[in-house]
Amino acid sequence: RAMHELGIVFYIIRDVKEAAEANGVEHVSAVVMEIGEVSTVVPEYLQDCWRWAADKEEMLRGCELRIHTVPAVTRCGDCGSEYETVRYGKTCPRCRSENTWLLRGNEVEIKEIEVN
């Protein structure tokens, strides 16, 4: 199951290393991720994979991975209300419409790279 997260970790490491090298940074102390509540990423698996993979890179040895969860919000195209996706799914709790779409909550992105 954690194979998915391991793949994501390799992408994160690649992007962080590129950004660090472009800015002349020798060591990264923390990476802050935004992970959507309904993304397919399991934060605990991501943390485990991160520790294993990051410590193999000189630039990232001991680097902390911080995860901010982005709540999933859905918008209704009929009545315009916004509601909690996880609680109500695709059906608008206000007007019962299914003409809805996810506004946010599916992100998997690097928000910050901290250096010391």
Order of helices and strands: HEHEEEHEE
Number of strands: 6
Strand order of the biggest β-sheet: 2-1-6
Which runs of at least 5 residues are low in confidence (pLDDT < 50)? Answer: none
Give the number of helices: 3
Q: What overall form do the CA principal axes indicate?
A: elongated
Structural class: alpha+beta
**Termini, distance in Å?**
34 Å
- Major sheet: 3 strands, mixed
Strand content: 25-35%
**Fraction of residues in helices?**
25-40%
What integer value in Å does the Rg equal?
18 Å
Mean pLDDT metric:
95
Could you characterize the architecture of this molecule?
With 116 residues, this protein is of the alpha+beta class. The protein has three helices and six strands, in the order αβαβββαββ. α2 (43-54) links the parallel β1 (28-36) and β2 (64-70). α1 (3-22) packs across α2 (43-54). It is elongated. The two termini are 34 Å apart. 21% of the residues are buried.
Draw up the topology in text.
Layout: H1 3-22, E1 28-36, H2 43-54, E2 64-70, E3 73-76, E4 82-84, H3 85-88, E5 100-104, E6 108-115
Parallel strand pairs: 1-2
Antiparallel strand pairs: 1-6, 3-4, 3-5
